[in-house]
Amino acid sequence: MLTTAPHIMLPAKVKRLVKRHDLVDAMGVELLNPSMKYLEFVRDLKWESSVILSKKTNQEVCIYTCKICGHISFEQMPTECPICRASIENFENNPDVIKRPQDPENLTEFEKKHIPVINISKANDSAADSGYDVNVKVGQIGHTMKIEDHITFIDYYLQSLDIKKRCLGRVILRCDKIQPSVTFYLNDVTSAKLTVISNCTAHGSWMSQTEL
To answer: Which of 112, 74, 205 is nearest to 152 (CA)?
Structure first.
């Protein structure tokens, strides 16, 4: 079955011509303010190429990181980083960025200091209220907040049947001034998965997930 590539009108300026005899053999152009539709098209091309590569190399390529702020994106690269607004060009495939415990059922003391602990409760007893109070604390054992070894930020994501996993926000933490814990309210949420990622300056990113 043949498919037709979408037609996208793009303003551009010719920057370079390569001539061979009397013919123009190649042309270099600069795109002027490319549209969001074009950026999304490029993003999808990169994603399809990554899937093809993963099938050939058996590598996991569904996790990407922003080189500017360290934000982690799942499934595909965003057109724009939801944290620092960096463009898609600043994301790179990084399947090993999230640290995983050797045995999730028997965490070591080191792992207990880094993996986020999520506590969730219904906001109130009203059947009409589908919100949740959420508390996230980094580590079953308290984590140090020294300059050389502290939790820099906590990112949280939501995923449901009609919403792909997307970042809801980030809490930035200052060493020696605040403990790695955050409380927030999730409004009007049903049958969803909450993902939390904490970032340690010395030991990388760690993740926890729970069902709502």
So the answer is: 205
Q: Long-range contact list for 78-83, CB < 8 A, 24+ apart?
A: 78/43, 79/36, 79/39, 79/40, 79/43, 82/166, 82/167, 83/155, 83/167, 83/170
Q: Average pLDDT in the 110-132 region?
A: 80
> 134-166 as b/e, with b when 16 or more CB fall inside 10 Å?
bebbbbeeebbbeeeebbbbbbbbbbeeeeeee
- Residue 82 backbone zone (phi > 0: left; psi -120 to 50: alpha; other: beta): alpha
State which H helix or E strand residue 39 sits in: helix 36-57
Is domain 98-211 in CATH 3.40.190.10, yes or no?
Answer: no
Going by C-alpha positions, the residue among 127, 34, 130 that lies closest to residue 89 is: 34
- Listed in order, the ranges of the chain carrying CATH 2.60.40.730 are 98-211
**Region 28-41 average pLDDT:** 74
Higher-confidence residue: 8 or 81? 81
CB 28 within 8 A of CB 14: yes
Report yes or no: 151 and 170 within 8 Å, Cβ to Cβ: no
Tell me: the pLDDT tens digits for 66-90? 999 999 998 888 889 999 999 999 9
- Tell me if the domain spanning 23-93 has CATH number 2.20.28.10: yes
As a whole number of angstroms, the distance between CA 164 and CA 177 comes to 34
CB 50 within 8 A of CB 60: no
Contact 91, 47 (CB under 8 A): no
